[in-house]
Structures are given as C-alpha cells and as structure tokens.
Design brief:
about 220 residues, mainly alpha, globular
C-alpha cells in the first residue's frame, strides 16, 4: 500500500491521467482486514498460560497447538475467537440469570417464544458488558474487565465476518469506524491510517457508484 501511494505521489506531475496513475485506488481487501483483525485480537488477549481467561490459557486447556501469535493460522484463530466468545456469552448468561446451563433442563418453547427469550438474554448481556461497561469496570476486578473487553472486540470481529459474508455495505461501513480506533490503539497504525482513508473516501470522497464498486470488490 505504501509503495503504491509513493508511486502515485511521484507520478503526479505527468501529463496524462494514466501516467499520473490516477486509475490506481490502493485498498485493503475486506478478507485481508478480517485476517488482520483476528491476529490483532489474538495478540492483544494472548496473555499467559497461568492466567485463567487469557487466550494462552484457553489454548493450553484445549490443546490448540496451531495458535501462534508470531505466525498466524487464520482458520485456527477464527475458530478459537468464536469458541471463546460463545463460552463467555454462555457464562454471562449463567451469571446474569443465576442459571447452570450445563445441568438445566431445556424449556419447551415454541419458535416465537424462544426468539423472544434469546432477545431478552442478549439485551441484558449487551447492556451490562457493552453499553454500561464503565459501570461494570468500576465494580469488577482486572480479569473480569479484560474478559468483557474481549467480548466487545470479538463481537466486532464476528459482526465484520458476517457483514462481509452477506455483502452488507452499510454494516461494513459502520464497523470500519470502530476498527480504525482498534487498529490505532493496537499498535498497527498502518492499518489504522488505511482504514481512516477508506472511511473518509466512503463518507466524503467517492461517488455512490465508486463506493459500491469498492465495497463489493
């Protein structure tokens, strides 16, 4: 990306649009962005094998030997993030509802009632660990706050993956705002800069036709 931008910069005094490389649009591909985000989450939350709740501890307990923060295997990282996210959500459900999910008998509900129940459970989890995170953080220890932050970041990762798969441009554009901040804070500023450029072009620089072309490429 940096080399392409340098090429455009040093060609700007050429006579024709072609020679000025105006046809080049440097972009992060969405799947590559998904891979980079999975690696960032694994790196940020890896921790130590002696620290319950950390990625390293989960890797050790589950025998996921292919997880390596220096050399990423995307599919293994993707699976681990999703499994960890699911387990935290189930545990949050137990804590919030004083409920032993492993030993409880499943209630016999029709489809509509089940959807309403899941919606209610999800809302309580989102309200406590997302919307009111600062209040939760004040009343919790460092480890619990760390897990809640993972829940937030993994949730964004899963939402990005789902939006890419569905080709939902609106959802992707909304997520880019949060990812720009995450990559800046995570020490991967090159990704942060590229996402900032992408977001500015989506909002202010490109026509609707260009925007659609970029987001469906």
């Amino acid at each position: 990306m940096a080399r392409l931008r340098s090429l455009i910069k040093y060609s700007r005094d050429e006579k024709t649009a072609y020679d000025r490389r105006e046809w080049i649009v440097p972009l992060i591909q969405l799947f590559h962005l998904q891979m980079a985000l999975s690696g960032l989450i694994i790196k940020n939350y890896f921790g130590s094998t002696s620290k319950p709740g950390s990625i390293a501890f989960n890797v050790s307990m589950l025998g996921r030997n292919r997880i390596n923060i220096k050399k990423q295997d995307f599919h293994t990282a993707d699976e681990l993030i999703r499994h960890t996210f699911d387990s935290i959500v189930l545990r949050a459900h137990e804590v919030l509802h004083d409920f032993d999910i492993l030993n409880a008998e499943a209630p016999h509900l029709d489809h509509c009632s089940r959807i309403k129940q899941l919606s209610s459970i999800s809302k309580r989890i989102v309200d406590k660990y997302y919307v009111n995170f600062e209040e939760f953080q004040e009343k919790s220890d460092v480890d619990s706050s760390h897990v809640a932050l993972f829940l937030r970041d993994a949730g964004l990762y899963i939402e990005l993956s789902s939006a890419i798969k569905a080709g939902d441009i609106g959802r992707i554009e909304e997520i880019l705002l949060w990812l720009t901040i995450m990559f800046q804070a995570g020490g991967t500023k090159n990704y942060g800069y590229e996402l900032l450029r992408l977001h500015c072009n989506l909002r202010y620089g490109w026509t609707d036709k260009m925007k659609k072309t970029v987001m469906t490429s």
